[in-house]
Specification:
Number of domains: 1
CATH superfamily: Alpha/Beta hydrolase fold, catalytic domain
CATH class: Alpha Beta
CATH architecture: 3-Layer(aba) Sandwich
Oligomer: single chain
Radius of gyration: 18 Å
CATH topology: Rossmann fold
Distance between the termini: 40 Å
Number of helices: 10
Length: 300
């Protein structure tokens, strides 16, 4: 596979200390207007904030966008205790970040693990969440997809060049992105691997797997999702997803009144650059109910 050229990652990078003094990294994409409402982008288990670069650049004409790397991913420091790679510690990190930036209220766009973090945060401080975009995650996880993820996390070997990196992500995720071309796989590879000397390795702590108990019984998350009855929510599902079923989305919409959109030709998870996802996110973030919850922050 021939690697296509892509532009550099945008935004302004900075680091900040978590409560336990672990140094974490984030990028901020300032809005055009002072006091612009903020969108907080939360990535998936083995991903990092670079996944949201295209979305953040597009939204930054109307919003301020913050895209952090969770601990152990991207440019954030690795935690010596893998048990801290959990939704609650990471959500605490996000409150630390928002307080440091003096941001009172955000709309959260979360993919997979990041979506669950958004739900945790909504339960912790609901008045500070203007809206939630849950990308291919919900209160139930299909066992088949969970087994697939556990099967590859931390198991991809280092590669020698970006051609090999693009081939590696393509071989893992081609069924989730059947319409991807070389430029798409290059973009994913650039957000998945990092250069270290003369090789490329996965851009996350391999000890993330230590926090995944293959014998653990998934908790009942439906009670936590009840908060969506009072917070505007958009659920995005990949039509080919093996993580979030259509039945779970239907039940969630029925119980909470959330909006929902299905992205064709996508598995887990849509990259949020798809036409359907772009239209749904724009409509949702500009909706009266989300704008109202942003309070005095400028929107649009």
């Amino acid at each position: 596979m021939t690697v296509a050229r892509i532009s550099e990652i945008g935004g302004e990078a900075f680091v900040f200390p978590a409560i336990d003094n672990l140094m974490l990294s984030a990028r901020i994409y300032p809005g055009r207007e002072s006091g612009a409402a903020t969108v907080l982008c939360l990535h998936g288990l083995t991903r990092n904030g670079k996944d949201f670069d295209t979305l953040a650049r597009r939204l930054s004409d109307r919003f301020q966008v913050v895209a952090p790397d969770q601990r152990g991913r991207g440019r954030s420091a690795y935690d010596s205790d893998p048990a801290n790679y959990n939704l609650f510690t990471q959500s605490r990190d996000m409150w630390t970040l928002l307080d440091m930036l003096e941001i009172q209220r955000v709309a959260v766009v979360g993919t997979s693990m990041g979506a669950l973090m958004g739900v945790v945060m909504a339960n912790q401080q609901p008045d500070r969440i203007a809206g939630l975009v849950l990308n291919d995650a919900g209160p139930e996880v299909d066992p088949e997809g969970l087994a697939r993820i556990r099967g590859y996390v931390g198991k991809t070997s280092a590669v020698g060049d970006w051609d090999a990196a693009a081939d590696a992500v393509s071989s893992l995720h081609s069924t989730s992105y059947p319409t991807y071309g070389p430029e798409d796989w290059t973009r994913m590879a650039r957000a998945t691997f990092i250069e270290t000397g003369d090789e490329l390795r996965l851009d996350y702590d391999p000890n993330l797997t230590a926090a995944l108990d293959p014998n653990a019984v998934p908790p009942d998350m439906w009670p936590a999702f009840a908060v969506l009855k009072t917070i505007p929510t958009l659920v995005i599902r990949g039509a080919l997803s093996d993580i979030l079923s259509a039945a779970t989305v239907d039940r969630l919409v029925d119980q909470t009144g959330a909006r929902a959109v299905t992205v064709p030709d996508r598995g887990h998870a849509p990259d949020l650059g798809e036409t359907e996802a772009v239209a749904a996110i724009d409509s949702f973030l500009m909706s009266p109910e989300v704008r109202l919850r942003f309070g005095g922050a400028a929107v649009g």
